[in-house]
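>> Question from a student workshop board

For tomorrow's exercise we were told to take the sequence and the ligand below, predict the bound structure, and bring the output to class. My setup keeps failing. Could a helper post the expected result so I can at least see what it should look like? The ligand is D41.
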Amino acid sequence: MASAKSPAQRVRRLRDEIAQADNNYYLLDRPTLPDAEYDRLMRELQVLEAEHPELITAESPTQRVGGTASRAFRQSRHAAPMLSLNNALNEAEVAAFDARARDGLARAREELNEVEYACELKFDGLAVNLRYENGELALGATRGDGAVGEDVTANIRTIRAIPLRLHARARVVPTVLEVRGEVMMFKREFERLNERQRAKDEREYSNPRNAAAGALRQLDPRITAERSLRFFAYGLGEMQGASEPPTHSDLLDWLVALGIPVAREREVANGIAGCLQFYQAVAQRRASLPYEIDGVVYRVNSRAQQQLLGFVSRAPRFAIAHKFPAQEAVTQLVGIEIQVGRTGALTPVARLAPVFVGGVTVTNATLHNEDEVRRKDVRIGDTVIVRRAGDVIPEIVAVVPERRPPNAPIFTMPALCPVCGSHVYREEGEAVARCTGGLVCAAQRKQALLHFASRRALDVEGLGDKLVDQLVDQGVVATPADLFKLGVGALAALDRMAEKSAANVVAGLARARTTTLPRFIYALGIRNVGESTARDLAHHFGKLDAIISATEDELLQVSDVGPIVAASIARFFSESHNREVVEQLRAAGVHWPESAPTRAPPGRFATKTFVITGTLPTLKREDAKAMIEDAGGKVAGSVSTKTDYVVAGEDAGSKLAKATALGVTIIDEAQLQKLLVQ
Ligand code: D41
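>> Workshop helper replied:
Here is what the output should look like for this input. Compare the format with yours to find the bug.
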């Protein structure tokens, strides 16, 4: 691409692309390029300009720091410029930063082996300057290009995290204090905002950063106020009437004393090794943080040393951002495939040209459902932005409309199931289209079998998806009951099935014959009947036959069973083929202890409500939940006055704080285990 053109042409092209992306991002809050792609363009431009200095012009995006101020707000010149922060994309770049810092300090005759660094998070928000005069918030401004930003005081004042008056309990309250930090939106708030946008049929924001930018740039502060923005400080601007603390970590402590929020996740580290440890630890916790970060920042802790190091162009030599691998990348959508799930739900899945994102190579992304595809207007051949955050399934954030091939057709759901050819229907008001084939449809049959055998259902060891594919495709197994007819011989005849693994599967099936009633009900895969409903049904009726013959009215007597769930249970057992499968399973020796019905679920946790927060030392969250529920307790998602216990693990956050505030009993995993065996 670039090779055919002259450097001058390439430079012009890059500037155009960057200017376009800036415009879309900063002015329209409508990103068209993922950050990593933008960084790549910028770097390419920087390299070309370094090689051909005669091509540098004042308008080049490398010659200014950020976007331009919008006309809607008054411009505000910063009393002290807001600098930019250099990036390191890997450990070698961090090492180079550290070497330069040590070098600079050695030249200034500072005796040292390791530099002391203040490590903190790099928030993915918007940099702002807050100016306090005589302790009162006098001005809030966006960073703009670093020299001039926008006066957004009215909006800043709506952010409850930002004090309108500094706390007088700090030792000294300066006459002028400028605080620099990031305004952002927490993930939870971002999701709520997008839900509201969807309900109003308005455009959704693609990430919390853009949502925060949109909120901060509202001309009506009441709208900003509704969006619950947050703020964390990271530094100082102009200051009068007080002296600066000797280190960055002291400065942050002092800001906290003045009432300014500073994120708790910070540390002082010795040398680069300590910094990299901090990076790894934060990377581990990234997904569970309530806000988005795109890296960490290392800063020489001593103010005196910071001053010795000084600046290069408009970035300090004493600080660097160590970025995480990008969670977004651009690639091409090569096709849309339809997957059929256990309940017949048809899910469009994007097939992508392989792309490295969030640390892995991604080739598929979920498109959720037909409406979602329409809303994002995703078409085959499109250039798309893919996002993979933590361990979640990759998804398509947006398409880049400028790069759409001509005549790309609008996506439509097929009218017939791609697996079995049955009709596809979509109930009014439902987002999901479904295959009407039921267990005639091989895809649904496979999913139903996998569900039946899954860990929390009958837990048949060794029955994986490859095996189920073969069993169904070759017509060996149609219903869960057929599984129990399998012998070692039939299994060993399949592809890639050694005698030993075949024997393991048969042994797994034999063990699965002994189960519990809740597991058995759950394993049947009745629509809308999850583990907890299965448990409630088992406790309420005691015996399977009582559930099978229950009317909808009787089912409605079960706690937490509403009309939709009652109807789907009754419908399931009214189908003779479902009753037959149940009979065949019992005939094949599947059994469980039956008990007398109980009004309330038994167990010592009956009527107790738990909330689990943080990472428990040994139990997975879902296991802890199942153990509590098995003992008759309930597990809720949020803390309230109705909560009896909060089970707190490592890095428990706001839920723990709320529990403390409400005086709820807080226990750890060990105490939970004790309660369970009592
Ligand atoms: O959390 C951040 N985004 C963050 C941004 C941070 N933790 N520290 C920062 N430090 C600086 C210097 C060292 C230049 C005072 C920054 C930024 N700058 C920054 N944010 C936006 C542009 C620059």
